[in-house]
Every structure is written in structure tokens, then in C-alpha cells.
Amino acid sequence: MYPEVPGTVKEILVTEGQQVRKGMPLLLIDDSIQKATTEQLESQAQAARALLEELKAEPRKETLQVVQAQVDSAQASLKTAQDTLSKQQAAYEMDPKSISKDALDTAINAEAVAQANLQVARKQLELTKAGAWLYDIQNQERQYRALEKSYLASSALLSKYTLRAPTDGIVLTIGTSVGNYVSPQGAYESYSQGMSPVLVLGTPQTNLHVRCYIDEILVPRLPPPSKIKAQMTIRGTNVKIPLNFVRVQPFVSPKIELSDQRQERVDVRVLPIIFSFEKPKDVNLYPGELVDVYVGD
Predict the structure, then answer these.
(1) What secondary structure letter does DSSP report for 264?
(2) In 187-224, which positions are buried (b, 16+ CB within 10 angstroms) versus exposed (e)?
(3) Are residues 226 and 289 in the same domain?
(4) SS3 116
(5) What's the CA gap between 38 and 150, in Å, rounded?
(6) How many Å apart are CA 168 and CA 175, to the nearest integer?
């Protein structure tokens, strides 16, 4: 198993040889930075959503009351200006010398300004009643969706900092320790000075498989798959275990699987065949061991 994100190992939750279930957390990588980023994006998405709901809820009742009060004030101002103009016009008609022409003109202008202010207040009332502009709502909705998707993407990435079991199995090896740096390339292995898997999981140890390599010179002598019979001998013992044919990997390749040195020059080419067997209860046998296999018909 290789992590999908790099980071420092924070905690290892399993031990070698432990049975695990699918989805069980195995290893934690320090996620403090990604967690803070996710929380920030979540807050921004929530703020954008609140603003969107505010735009959709317009007009606000209190805002309408203020705008209506402005209309009432403008009407009162217009009434005052009209009354003042009427009185001055009446006095001017009775005695042109009682009111100056300048004062009369000022009253006329004041009435016109009050009339214009009332029209502005009424337009503002209509605009407030209409609520938020459709384009403002659409723009805010797009911003909210973008932030929401950013949050979901960040949250999905945050979950990658927890390495979980992809299936039921057993922990075969743990290739790192708390405080070590790991990456999608694996963990640094000091012995080989290369990168190795962070964790290796295997299937339950009751049923195992063995990969047998047949020299390409012997491939023509293989019997048909339905007639293949094989048995396995464990090195250092006289134990012989019958094998069940599973499949042939139909690709002849250089025999470098054991050393895993891809730059090694290899002259022997082999055909892999997979067999299965039930592990004997009284035999110590582990994945990775080298065994001898006899194949016949």
C-alpha cells in the first residue's frame, strides 16, 4: 500500500500479523495544514451561502419600513414647500411689493426640488420592493457552488491522510514508523536505499498461492491446463503439499521477479503459473518463502 498524499507519519494504528477489515484505518499522516485549509474553505462556502440566502430573502421588512418613512418625509417636505409657495403667491398677487421676486423664485424652486425628492423616494421604494437583482443572485449562487466544490475537493483530499484497508486481510509488513516521511512513492528503506511500500497487506493465511516459473525451454512440455498436476516441497523439510492449478500468466518475461532489479541482465525467460493450496496447520509457512514445485500430468 502506498499513500496518495505525502507527509509525516503521525500514528500507526495496526501491528504486523493483525487481521484487518475493509475500511479500517491503518495509518495516519499529519493533516494539520490540509485540515486548516478545509475548514477555511468550509467557512467561505457557508458565508457565500448565507449571502445567497440574504439576497433571495430581500426585501427585508425593516428596510421597507425605512424606505417608506423616506417617502412619507418627502411627501411632507413637498406639502410644506407647496404651502409656502401658495402663501407667497397669494401675497404677491395682493401686493407685489410685499414679497420680493427673489423670494418667490426661491419658493418655486423649493417646491420643484421637493417634488423631485418625492419621485426619487418612490423609485427607491419600488426598487426595494423588487428585491435583489436576478443577476446578483445568479452570480452569488455560482460563487457559492464554486466554494462548495472546493470544500468538497479539499475534504476528499483530507480523507487521503488516513490510510485505510482496501479489503479484508492481514498486515504482513509495516515499512515505516512514526515521524518518518512517506510519499506516493513509498517510504525510504535504509537497507536497500530505495523506496518500499508503506504497508503490505495479504489475504487470510488459510488459503495461499504460489507462483511457479517455468523455463521457456520447458514450456512446450507443459500439459494442458485441465491435466496439470503439481506439488510443492518446502525447503529444509520433507513436507510435500499438493497444489491446485489456478491460471497461467500468458506472458513470458525475464526472470527478475525475485531480485526485482530491472536493470539486471537476465538470460533466462520464464512463464509464470499460479497454484493455490490450503495451508497445513502443523507447518510454518509464510508469504514470500521460496519453495520447489514439481509440475506434471
Answers:
(1) S
(2) bbeeeeeebbbbbbbeeeeeebebebbbeeeeeeebee
(3) yes
(4) helix
(5) 9
(6) 19
Q: Based on the domain organization, do 166 and 228 belong to the same domain?
A: no
CA neighbor of 64 nearest in space, from 121, 138, 133, 134: 121
Q: pLDDT of 47-101, one tens digit each?
A: 999 999 999 988 888 889 999 999 999 999 999 999 998 988 888 888 888 888 8
pTM metric for this prediction: 0.69
Domain containing 247 equals: 205-296
CA distance 195 to 127: 67
Q: Nearest Cα to 159, choosing from 1, 2, 42, 3?
A: 3
Q: What's the Cα-to-Cα distance from 289 to each of 41, 75, 90, 258, rounded to whole Å?
A: 50, 98, 119, 11
Q: What mean pLDDT value characterizes the chain?
A: 90
Distance from CA of residue 202 to its chain's centroid? 28
The pLDDT tens digits of the residues spanning 8-47 come to: 999 999 999 999 999 999 999 999 999 999 999 999 999 9
- In a domain, residue 106? The reply is yes
Which one, of 141, 162, 156, 276, lies nearest residue 208 by Cα?
A: 276
Say whether both 216 and 282 belong to one domain: yes
Nearest one of 201, 165, 169, 164 to 19, comparing CA atoms: 169
Write the single-letter amino acid at 16.
Answer: E
Number of domains in the chain: 3
